[in-house]
Amino acid sequence: DIIKGSDYWNDLSNRKLVGKINTNSNYVHRNKENDRLFRDGWWIDIKKDVWSVMRWVFKDKNFCKENDIENVPQFFR
User: Fold this and answer.
1) I need a labelling partner for 46 at 20 to 30 A (CA). Which of 5, 36, 40, 76 fits?
2) What are phi and psi of 44, to 5 degrees?
């Protein structure tokens, strides 16, 4: 959610992380719509790899029964 720009939390650590993402993403931030479109596209490009790594790390754990948690609202995760 942080990567996609749809994170609900707006605390100091989250704002710092978003700032680092924006600084290191090699693009010029012009407005919120461009930012959202960039993040959506970037997430689509990398999400398969990110989910693969997360599943591997937590493969022996029983945290979540959902297979497709990307579409579950953040509040319910």
Assistant:
1) 76
2) -60, -40
CA pair distance 63, 52, nearest whole angstrom: 16
Cβ–Cβ under 8 Å, residues 25 and 38: yes
User: Measured between alpha carbons, how far is 56 from 40 in angstroms, rounded to an integer?
Assistant: 24
Phi–psi pair at 35, nearest 5 degrees: -60, -45
Residue 38's nearest CA partner among 75, 69, 17, 46 is 46
Residue-wise pLDDT for 22-44, tens only, equals 666 555 556 667 777 777 888 88
pTM listed for this prediction = 0.41
Residue 68, pLDDT score: 67
Question: Which residues, including other chains, have CB under 8 Å from residue 51's CB and lie 6 or more apart?
Answer: 70
Task: Determine the Cα–Cα distance for residues 18 and 46; give it in Å rounded to an integer.
Answer: 17
